[in-house]
């Protein structure tokens, strides 16, 4: 913990130097509370061996306000379903891998990640859990499901039945009621390309609004019965063209509690030149004009009519990396041979792995003015966010008057939850 404190203090000093001269927001955050949203991935329990018990034991959970469970797909039949019932509610966890330290046993109502979410909420009563619908590989049929009033009603009803009312397939009615406190729409992307093969229509833009309205109506109706406020959020894109193609910005926030804004994947190894993937502002010398940055993205949403307090900035717990870097200088904006080797996929790597690289010959470089950092050893380049960058982004969120931060995803953090603790400390 002392080591983290030293890093955090250093990060605060770095970030404070950048934003000290910035004016205070015109209107203070009313209750000094910020959304601190983090994604837990369904599949992380397998190869990554990352469990919700790890989120609890690291201290991350106590720093969060919302936990998003990724993902629940929309099927070709236009309904919500589980992508992996074994992970969601069937797999039994050992005592070591359980949040409450008690092993799952045969005959209990349900197991899997959903039971672990229930356990983590029991230990953190203020934490809200949301089911995230869609995602990169689960959004193919969103356009079909959102096309008509009847199809929207069908989709929303099925989603509430499965995830909110807790009617899990093959189990007693309502067995998992109360696990989730709302729905997070991760339609990637209405009106524009996402995963190859996704159904896309020009009218997706209007239909997203109508779908959000239907979710809000059905959630509110159920909430009156259960005397509970159910949440509705959405994950929305960074690219201005995707914002224009897919969202009636001045209308959707009537239905959303907030939207989490993509603050990463601005550049990556699909490009032949090293670059930043999550900078606050466009760095000097950037080869693209116009270019992506967190500030440009947030400003685009605000210009379209989004309320600042309902914009939650996404931050990455992973990196984009290139190898075979040529040219001169510190590696930034230089030609590269291709993606750098990664533990789980070439071209990407978790923060928990990258934090060890300075001891292996990599140099940390920082652009303090524009809010990004990278590692370079003369051949391999990784653009990433470390605790110092996280604190700087937290201070930007405060100065800009935004609603909070979103983290993708918890399995990329280290065993001490250093990134989560840094962003949380900056948003107190």
Automatic annotation (TrEMBL):
UniProt keyword terms in alphabetical order: Carbohydrate metabolism, Chitin degradation, Glycosidase, Hydrolase, Polysaccharide degradation, Signal
EC number: 3.2.1.14
One Pfam family in the UniProt entry: Glyco_hydro_18
InterPro entries: Chitinase_II/V-like_cat, Chitinase_insertion_sf, GH, Glyco_hydro18_cat, Glyco_hydro_18_chit_AS, Glycosyl_Hydrlase_18
Signal peptide: 1-28
GO biological process: carbohydrate metabolic process; chitin catabolic process
GH18 domain sequence ranges: 34-428
Cited Gene3D superfamilies: 3.10.50.10, Glycosidases (3.20.20.80)
Catalytic reaction annotation: Random endo-hydrolysis of N-acetyl-beta-D-glucosaminide (1->4)-beta-linkages in chitin and chitodextrins
Record carries keyword Iron: no
Family: Belongs to the glycosyl hydrolase 18 family.
Protein name (Swiss-Prot/TrEMBL): chitinase
């Amino acid at each position: 913990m002392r080591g983290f404190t030293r890093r955090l203090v250093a990060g605060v000093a770095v970030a404070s130097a950048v934003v000290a001269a910035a004016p205070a927001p015109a209107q203070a955050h009313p209750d000094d509370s910020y959304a601190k949203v983090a994604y837990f991935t369904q599949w992380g329990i397998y190869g990554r061996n990352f469990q919700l018990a790890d989120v609890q034991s690291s201290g991350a959970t106590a720093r969060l306000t919302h936990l998003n469970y990724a993902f629940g797909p929309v099927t070709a039949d236009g309904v919500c379903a589980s992508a992996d019932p074994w992970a969601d509610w069937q797999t039994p966890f050992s005592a070591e891998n359980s949040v409450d330290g008690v092993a799952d046993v045969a005959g209990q109502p349900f197991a899997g990640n959903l039971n672990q979410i229930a356990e983590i909420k029991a230990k953190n009563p203020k934490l809200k859990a949301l089911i995230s619908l869609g995602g990169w590989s689960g959004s193919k049929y969103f356009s079909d499901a959102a096309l008509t009033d009847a199809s929207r009603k069908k989709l929303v009803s099925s989603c509430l039945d499965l995830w909110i009312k807790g009617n899990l397939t093959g189990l007693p009615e309502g067995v998992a009621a109360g696990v989730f406190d709302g729905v997070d729409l991760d339609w990637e992307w209405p009106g524009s390309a996402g995963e190859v093969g996704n159904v896309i229509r020009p009218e997706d833009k209007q239909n997203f609004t109508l779908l959000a309205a239907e979710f809000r109506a059905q959630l509110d109706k159920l909430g009156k019965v259960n005397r509970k406020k159910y949440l509705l959020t959405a994950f929305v894109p960074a690219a201005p063209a995707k914002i224009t193609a897919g969202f009636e910005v001045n209308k959707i926030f009537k239905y959303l509690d907030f939207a989490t804004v993509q603050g990463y994947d601005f550049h990556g190894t699909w490009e032949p030149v090293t670059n930043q993937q999550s900078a606050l502002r466009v760095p000097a010398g950037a080869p693209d004009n116009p270019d992506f940055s967190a500030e440009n993205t947030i400003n685009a949403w605000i210009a379209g009519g989004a309320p600042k307090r309902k914009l939650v900035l996404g931050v990455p717990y992973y990196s984009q990396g290139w190898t075979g870097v040529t040219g001169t200088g510190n590696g930034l904006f230089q030609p590269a041979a291709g993606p750098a080797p990664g533990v789980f996929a070439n071209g990407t790597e978790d923060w928990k792995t990258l934090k060890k690289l300075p001891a292996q010959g990599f140099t940390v470089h920082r652009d303090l003015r524009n809010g990004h950092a990278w590692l370079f050893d003369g051949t391999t380049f990784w653009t990433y966010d470390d605790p110092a960058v996280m604190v700087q982004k937290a201070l930007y969120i405060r100065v800009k008057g935004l609603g909070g931060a979103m983290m993708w995803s918890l399995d990329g953090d280290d065993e001490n939850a250093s990134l989560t603790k840094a962003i949380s400390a900056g948003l107190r």
